[in-house]
Amino acid sequence: QVQLVESGGGLVQAGGSLRLSCAASGRTFTYYTRGWFRQAPGKEREVVAAINRSGLRTYYADSVKGRFTISRDNAKNTVYLQMNSLNPEDTAVYCCAASQSSGSPPETEYDYWGQGTQVTVSS
Q1: d(C-alpha 72, C-alpha 4), whole Å
Q2: Contact 69/7 with Cβ under 8 angstroms?
Q3: How far apart (Å, rounded) are the C-alpha atoms in residues 41 and 43?
Q4: Phi and psi at residue 97, in whole multiples of 5°?
Q5: Measured CA angle at 102 (ends 95, 66), to 5 deg
Q6: Are 119 and 41 in contact (CB under 8 A)?
Q7: Does 95 have pLDDT greater than 90?
């Protein structure tokens, strides 16, 4: 069966860094757009970053631009999210996802989702 499993979340102080990983199994996601989403309590789920099939084009939400970096290693079937200069506002459950759509797909066009990993940033 297809599985996406996130890791790397945890508790970090404001200004610190975390690196999230999302390992896939059950199929190869080389030809899928990959994305990271997050949802904080009381808020809608939002896209944080996305990366195209080749890894050469990326998208970032304005709130994380310049602080977060998405990357992928197709040989390892894994996508990463490097998060620097973390703020308490970044506290959320972070989920990775994969889409057969090209470009910057909306949330509804992502086909596979992980269960999420908690990121908590203390002040």
Answers
A1: 14
A2: no
A3: 6
A4: -150, 165
A5: 55
A6: no
A7: yes
pLDDT, tens digit (0-9, with 9 covering 90-100), for 102-112: 888 999 999 99
* Antiparallel, parallel or unpaired: β 10-13 and 33-39: unpaired
Q: How far is CA 68 from CA 2, 25, 58, 75, in A?
A: 27, 25, 11, 22
3-state secondary structure 28-89: CCCCCEEEEEEECCCCCCEEEEEECCCCCCEEECCCCCCCEEEEEECCCCEEEEEECCCCHH
Burial of 51 (0-12, 13-18, 19+ CB in 10 A): buried
Confidence of residue 3 (pLDDT cuts 50, 70, 90): very high
